[in-house]
Amino acid sequence: MNKQQLVDEIKRLKEEKNAVILAHYYQRAGVQDVADYMGDSLKLSRIAAETDADMIVFCGVHFMAETAKILSPEKTVLLPVAEAGCPMADMVTERKLTAYKEKHPDTLVVCYVNTTAQVKALSDVCVTSSNAEKVIRHYEGEKLLYVPDKNLGTYLKHKYDLDMEVWPGFCCIHNDVTKEEVEFAKSTYPNAEFIVHPECRMEIVEMADFVGSTKGLLEYVSNSDCQEFIIGTEKGIIHQMELANKDKKFHLLSENLACYDMKLTNLEDVYEALKNEQHVIEVEETIREQALKSLNRMFELTDQ
Ligand code: SF4
């Protein structure tokens, strides 16, 4: 099948099966273009919970589809590529977190949404990069552990002077950004604003004109008077920035800002997932109920 035939077949199967396609901003442009909804991981999971569709095709990585399943247990949630995972989410395991909690029974666990259902189930509250600051401020004065992203955790800890331990995990894409890359981009595009995701290291965040989640960065470029930006996050986001801001210029900080797992999914995978109803995400019910508590606590604190 050529690309247009694939797109037509995806549309036909979607209607036949009452399915919706959700795609994260870091997906390939072709996948973004067939999606019914685009967003960050949490926005997509909320959409998954609210839609009348029976089937959700989640174009992203495993923890995202799993979060959708936690919020919508009655729906069929499909992840087009079964191996699409998040290396950072795998840096905190149920076993290690259980051992930590046994040694530190008075510490509250704050987990990033980039975690497995088992880790969410062991946590007191979940956060995303968009709402972490809002959530964490409710816990000022408490003993905290933040898992798994050391960069976002360190950023929050310093900004709010928190009594918070930070797990040593990281996103291998954002963590690899170097000062030299930023200095080079700034000298190449002197009129551009440098905007960055807080999964980058502190020394990089400190060089930025703006720090924000994927959603925050998208909103920032649309609202800013500046016409040119250096983008310090995963390259897939530039497709949506360009669609929404046709008169502005976007320069990717480094070609290394490409998430291997996010780029595993292509149009053929979306088609195969719909046709064969593969790969179905399941979460064991007791884990799901516990994980849902940490997500619901986040929603209570953020009114989302
Ligand atoms: S960009 Fe980083 S945090 Fe996001 S899925 Fe890829 S490895 Fe995980």
From TrEMBL:
UniProt-annotated binding residues for iminosuccinate: H24, S41, Y112, V113, N114, S129, H197, P198, E199, T214
Pathway connected to this protein: Cofactor biosynthesis; NAD(+) biosynthesis; quinolinate from iminoaspartate: step 1/1
Chemical reaction(s) catalysed: iminosuccinate + dihydroxyacetone phosphate = quinolinate + phosphate + 2 H2O + H(+)
Principal place of residence: cytoplasm
Positions annotated to bind [4Fe-4S] cluster: C86, C171, C259
GO biological process: 'de novo' NAD+ biosynthetic process from L-aspartate
Enzyme Commission (EC) number: 2.5.1.72
Cofactor(s) demanded: [4Fe-4S] cluster
Coiled coil: 257-284
Protein localization: Cytoplasm
Cofactor: record remark: Binds 1 [4Fe-4S] cluster per subunit.
A Pfam family matched in the record: NadA
Molecular function as annotated in GO: 4 iron, 4 sulfur cluster binding; metal ion binding; quinolinate synthetase A activity
Sorted UniProt keywords: 4Fe-4S, Coiled coil, Cytoplasm, Iron, Iron-sulfur, Metal-binding, Pyridine nucleotide biosynthesis, Transferase
Tree of life domain: Bacteria
Membrane-spanning intervals of the chain: none
InterPro entries hit by this protein: NadA, NadA_sf, Quinolinate_synth_type2
One cellular component term from this protein's GO annotations in UniProt: cytoplasm
Function (record text): Catalyzes the condensation of iminoaspartate with dihydroxyacetone phosphate to form quinolinate.
Family: Belongs to the quinolinate synthase family. Type 2 subfamily.
Name of this protein: Quinolinate synthase
Organism: Haloplasma contractile SSD-17B
